[in-house]
Give the backbone structure.
Amino acid sequence: MIKSGSFEGKNIEKKHILVIRLSAMGDVAMSVGVVRTLLIQYPNVKITFLSRPFLKPLFEEIPNVVFYAVDTKDRHKGFLGIYRLYKELKNKEFDAFADLHNVMRSRVLNLFFWKLPSATIDKGRKEKKQLTRSENKIFKQLKTTHERYADVFRELGFQFDLFHSVPLPHEKLNQTLLGLIGGEVVTKKLIGIAPFAQHEAKTYPIDLMEEVIEQLEKQGNYKILLFGGGQKEISILSIFEKKYNDVICIAGKLRLKEELHLISNLGCMLSMDSGNAHLAALFGIPTITLWGATHPYAGFAPFGQSQENALLSDRKKFPKLPTSIYGNKKVEDYQDAMRTIRPTAIVERVRTVLK
């Protein structure tokens, strides 16, 4: 933990914390449960959360959180942009700075707020490198990202634990969503499937995913909703929608807020090591994740999920796994690692959690 002070021992019940976490949706989503748990145990604390504009819906249901959009592509780009951001924020009477990102942009902003007690996340880069290297690998569970986030607030004096977490409230399906997925959902359990990830090395082979979809659809009592983004993904998911009666492509049809409402009504979510897994976990939805080049030991498993819901590639056949923290590294002869996760095992796990 990198910190420049805390107000531990002082009255922290009514403090105002400036928090920053930009980057990918999954990284920001993992902070939501931590922030919510903190505010449950410190209900008079106020948080201003800095992040990318489209992620605002993640925080709208959390009392005492003000979301502040950071435009890293234009208004807040570069050093002058960060200084502009500081000028926009400096009169808001913050009591502390919590850096959940620890990159140049967040560190520069922290410098501008040098008078505030601050704490910065320790990402554990050294131990993550030891976990993913090919030789002399140290294969063990590392501290979760959720706990690393929580440690930042603990360094500022907030003593709380994540065992007291409460899922975000489920939203009732409105007429727009009912029209999209069909009114018979009252008699069928909803299964969300997010079959893609940012990197190929942590994406389950699409031919095997179709086997999973086909087997689940044959059960007759499930409605399968396919999540994704980007035209290429939408094209593939649309083929599945046309091919199977109880399969609906959600990708590209909803805004994030509406997508969250839909996810909150799922019976379970099947996802890669990707953002959709973290979104579902926020609502306490049973979330089954498939792991290829990455591994839950790196600390990125969805919040509050059973270890049995993480289905792993076979390390006996592919002993160098995990080969990457984010899945962005390709290792020769490891492109078929995820094929060791059989479709039948995935279907059985889905059926088990839906019971």
Notes: DSSP finds eleven helices and twelve strands in the chain. The mean pLDDT is 94. The two ends are 42 Å apart (CA to CA).
